[in-house]
Amino acid sequence: MTTPLTIPRILLALLLCVSLTARGEDGYRLWLRYDKLNDAALAKKYSSTLKYILLEKESPTLLIAQKELNNALQGLLGTTIGNTHSIQAGTIVLGTPASSPVIASLAPRDKLGAVGNEGFLIYTTTVKSKLCIVITANQDIGVLYGIYHFIRLLQTQQSIQSLSIASAPAIQLRILNHWDNLDRTVERGYAGFSLWDWHKLPGYIDPRYYDYARANASIGINGTVLTNVNANAQVLTDLYLKKVAALADIFRPYGIKVYLTARFSAPIEIGGLKTADPLDKDVKVWWKNKIDEIYTYIPDFGGFLVKANSEGQPGPQNYNRSHADGANMLAEALAPHHGIVMWRAFVYSNEVPEDRAKQAYNEFKPLDGSFNNNVLVQVKNGPVDFQPREPFHPLFGAMPKTPLMLEVQLTQEYLGFATHLVYLAPLFKECMDADTYTHGKGSTVSRVIDGSLENHKLTGIAGVANIGNDRNWTGHPFAQANWYALGRLAWLPALSSETIAEEWIRMTFSNDEAAVHALKEMMLRSRETTVQYMTPLGLHHIMGWNHHYGPGPWIKDKPRADWTAVYYHQADSLGVGFNRTARGSNALAQYTPEVQKLYGSPDTCPEEYLLWFHHIRWDHKLSSGRTLWDELCYHYYTGADSVYHMQQRWNALESKIDRDRFQQVKSLLAIQHQEAIWWRNACVLYFQTFSKKDIPAGLEKPDKSLQYYESLEFPFAPGIRPKW
Amino acid sequence: MTTPLTIPRILLALLLCVSLTARGEDGYRLWLRYDKLNDAALAKKYSSTLKYILLEKESPTLLIAQKELNNALQGLLGTTIGNTHSIQAGTIVLGTPASSPVIASLAPRDKLGAVGNEGFLIYTTTVKSKLCIVITANQDIGVLYGIYHFIRLLQTQQSIQSLSIASAPAIQLRILNHWDNLDRTVERGYAGFSLWDWHKLPGYIDPRYYDYARANASIGINGTVLTNVNANAQVLTDLYLKKVAALADIFRPYGIKVYLTARFSAPIEIGGLKTADPLDKDVKVWWKNKIDEIYTYIPDFGGFLVKANSEGQPGPQNYNRSHADGANMLAEALAPHHGIVMWRAFVYSNEVPEDRAKQAYNEFKPLDGSFNNNVLVQVKNGPVDFQPREPFHPLFGAMPKTPLMLEVQLTQEYLGFATHLVYLAPLFKECMDADTYTHGKGSTVSRVIDGSLENHKLTGIAGVANIGNDRNWTGHPFAQANWYALGRLAWLPALSSETIAEEWIRMTFSNDEAAVHALKEMMLRSRETTVQYMTPLGLHHIMGWNHHYGPGPWIKDKPRADWTAVYYHQADSLGVGFNRTARGSNALAQYTPEVQKLYGSPDTCPEEYLLWFHHIRWDHKLSSGRTLWDELCYHYYTGADSVYHMQQRWNALESKIDRDRFQQVKSLLAIQHQEAIWWRNACVLYFQTFSKKDIPAGLEKPDKSLQYYESLEFPFAPGIRPKW
Question: Which has fewest Cβ within 10 Å: A25, A316, A400, A501?
Answer without folding.
Answer: A400
